[in-house]
Each structure stands twice: as structure tokens, then as C-alpha cells.
Amino acid sequence: MRGPVVPATMLVEEPPGGCGWPLASGVVMERNGTKSPNMQGPATYRICVRGHLAASWSDRLEGMSITRSNGGEGEETTLLVGRLPDQAALTGVLNTLYELHFAVVSVDCMEVG
Prior knowledge:
The protein is α+β, with helices and mostly antiparallel strands. It has a domain at 41-113: Alpha-Beta Plaits, CATH 3.30.70.2040. Helix content is 15%, strand content 37%. The chain has helices at residues 8-11, 87-99; strands spanning 20-22, 27-30, 35-37, 43-50, 65-70, 76-84, 104-112. A four-stranded antiparallel beta sheet has the order 5-6-4-7, with helices on one face.
């Protein structure tokens, strides 16, 4: 037997750090006064993946800058940094990395708005 139907909006977790309220600019203001991204707003992201990704992939990855490096213990990594219009674009970048078989080490939101 199925339980009650829950609207999708009720399934979304609160942003880290507590409740927020939506702003016209597409960000959420946290109780402590910091901004965090929401689904519609632009933001600058930093994505680190294992392995070396050629700079020629930048166009396919929403124009993100691509920097290759050698991490600790000889691990090859690639750092992608760029401003994305919304989280749909971020999802597209992450899906492309998945299709290319790159393991994502981290995704950081550096700046909102």
C-alpha cells in the first residue's frame, strides 16, 4: 500500500546552515546573513576531478577554465572554475564529466549572484 503523495517541493532539503528565504536575484539568504545558491541563480563553481582533462573540453563544459595539476601522492587532478547561469548548467557539466569517466573529487560554490 502506498503512503500519501508528497509534493516535490516538500522533498527538497533546507540549504546547509539553516532555513533561508528566496531573494529576487536567485539566491537564498541564510539566517547568518550569507548567500547560498538556489536552482535559478547564477554562481561561480570550482570542480575538482581525478585525472587530466584537456583544455579543449572547455566549450563542452560551459566555458569553464581547465587547469591540470598533480595532487598529493602523485595523483593527477583537473580543476574547473567558471560562472554558470544556474544549477541546470552545473548538472550538465557534471553529467559530461560522468560520461567522460572522470571521478568528481569536489564541487564548491565560490560566489553567488
